[in-house]
Design a protein that fits this description.
Length: 213
Amino acid sequence: MSVAAKICGLSSEAAVAAAVEGGAAYVGFVFYPPSPRSVTPEHAGELCAAVPVGIQRVGMFVDAEDATIGAVLAAAPLDILQFHGSETPERVVETQRRFGRKVMKAISVAGPEDVALASHYEEVADLLLFDAKPPPGATRPGGNGLIFDWELIAGRAWRLPWLLSGGLTAALLPEAVRISGAKAVDVSSGVERRPGDKDPEKIRAFLEVAYSL
């Protein structure tokens, strides 16, 4: 059984090409200015042009207003909106109705009480993403290269498709999938030379491992 993979925080043509050629199921673009991976709507639109039909284009937002989301969608043809902030279930529903896009809600995990929060989104979101909770004082909610205890989500029967994220690398992937039971994964910092600078070779290596599992 292969594991579907999402390559997030893409900002260059070479990185997008590596993700597409390697068989990524999702490609992600960050629209959160404090992140070193943030791209403009116009640049994301140019990068999306190289993504063939069948690969889901995901935009990552953090507590974004409608005007911000609308400006991105006017320039970039996204399929999924990824919410990585404190968005409520009501906000998820409101956004789905307003923009007609699927919503992936990220759940930041440090302990069992965080995993329990996912139940609030099971009836409204289209996908869930479990990521490591950022440390105090962090400037971004994800992409920090941190992992969490995968046992916390192991053996759970979620009503929605879900992805595992947080500090994954090609080397860690087999164990992460074995313990968590993930059928889909998300990677960002684990395929970079430095924050915001994706390494096409690391992207290819990660995807090769994902599809060999």
